[in-house]
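Ticket 4471: requesting a sanity check on a complex prediction with calcium ion. Repro inputs:
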Amino acid sequence: MRVLLIEDEHHLREALRRGLSEAGDEVVGAATGPEGLRLAREQVFDVIVCDILLPGLNGFQVCRRLREQAVWTPVLVLTAKDGEWDQAEALDAGADDYLTKPFSYVVLRAHLRALARRGARSDNQGADLMRWGDIVLDKRAHRCSRAGRTVELSNREFELLAELLASGGRAVTKSELLERVWGPGFNGDPNIVEVYVGYLRRKLDAPFGRRSLETVRGVGYRLAPDEVD
Ligand code: CA
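Returned C-alpha cells:
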C-alpha cells in the first residue's frame, strides 16, 4: 500500500512512517499542506493520511482542494479530541474517514486497509461513510448532513436513506426497502415506505430546494443525480 502522510509534527510523522514501512507499506511524508497537495496531485497513492493543523493549508483545505481538482484518493483525517475542529467538519470537507488522536497504530492500519480496499470513490456499498452529491451519511457516528448542515433523522429514516445510498442511483423497489429496512417479518401496511420517503423529502430535500428522492413509477425509488432544483 502506498501512503501519503501529511503531518507537520516530525516525531509523529517519523513514527508512523517507520511503523507503516515495517508493515510493508511505502510511505511518502509531507510536512506542510501545500507540499501534501502537490504530492497527492503528482503521484498515485492508495490512501492519504492528513493532519488538520498544518502549515500553509490546513487538512480541510487540502481535502477540499483535492476534491475540487477531482483527486479522489481516500483521505483519513487525524483529528484532536479537544480540538477546535471536529470529525463532522472533516467529512464535510471531503475526507473519507477520521481517527481521533491519540490512536493505536493497529487501529490506524485497519482503517487504512479498509479505505484502500474500498478504493477511490467506488460505490457506497458496505461503507461507513456514504455520499450522494452533498449528502453525507456517517454510519459510524450515525450522522447525516447535507451541504455541511446536520440533518436530524430518526433511526428508520436513517436506515431508509442508507439503503437508497447503497443502491448508488439504481432504483430500489418498495418491497426491497420494506424487507431491508422494516425486516422480512413486517406485516403492516406496505405504504409505510411512501410515508417515510415523504419524511425524508421534508428533511433532506425541501429545506435545500432539491429533489434527490425520486419516485420511479411502478417500481420504487432512487436517488436522482445531484442538481439544484
Ligand atoms: Ca499538526
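Notes from triage: Helices lie at 10-22, 33-42, 59-68, 87-92, 105-118, 155-166, 174-182, 192-205. Leaving this open until the requester confirms.
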